[in-house]
Amino acid sequence: MPIGDILQVILITALVMLPLGHFMGQRLQKWRKNCRQLLRQPRYLKSEGVWQNTTESQTQAKSKNEK
Fold first, then answer.
1. pTM for the full model?
2. DSSP class per residue in 1-26
3. Which of 2, 11, 41, 48 has a Cα-to-Cα distance from 19 of 20 to 30 A?
4. Measured between alpha carbons, how far is 2 from 25 in angstroms, rounded to an integer?
5. How far is it, in rounded angstroms, from Cα 11 to Cα 59?
6. What share of the chain is helix, strand, coil (3-state, %, to 5)?
7. Distance of CA 25 to CAs 18, 19, 36, 55, 66, Å?
8. Angle at 64 between CA 61 and CA 65, to 5 degrees
9. Structure confidence at residue 66 (pLDDT)
10. How far apart are the first and last CA of the chain?
11. For 22-32, what is each residue's pLDDT tens digit?
12. What is the DSSP letter of 59?
């Protein structure tokens, strides 16, 4: 097989595989992320209490002060 044919095969392979690899790399990252989320155990946060809306807490504090 002449060197020219080998270079043509390498060039054609590169032209096909580089864009395909880039496209599949982006897709695989999304698939890996989704699989990790499905298969891993969930992580829980410590409860630090209940969040309150600041306007509600201010109105409750005012009503308590008025009594």
1. 0.40
2. --HHHHHHHHHHHHHHHHHHHHHHHH
3. 2
4. 34
5. 72
6. 75, 0, 25
7. 10, 10, 16, 48, 63
8. 85
9. 60
10. 98
11. 888 878 888 88
12. H
Cα(65)–Cα(67) distance, integer angstroms: 6
Q: Summarize pLDDT for 33-47 with one digit per residue, the tens.
A: 888 888 876 666 666
Name the residue with tokens 């600041």. 54
Residue with tokens 């989704």: 34
Q: CA dist 57 to 25, 53, 65, Å? A: 49, 6, 12
DSSP states of 31-49: HHHHHHHHHSPPP-PPP--
Contacts of 43 (CB under 8 A, 6+ apart): none
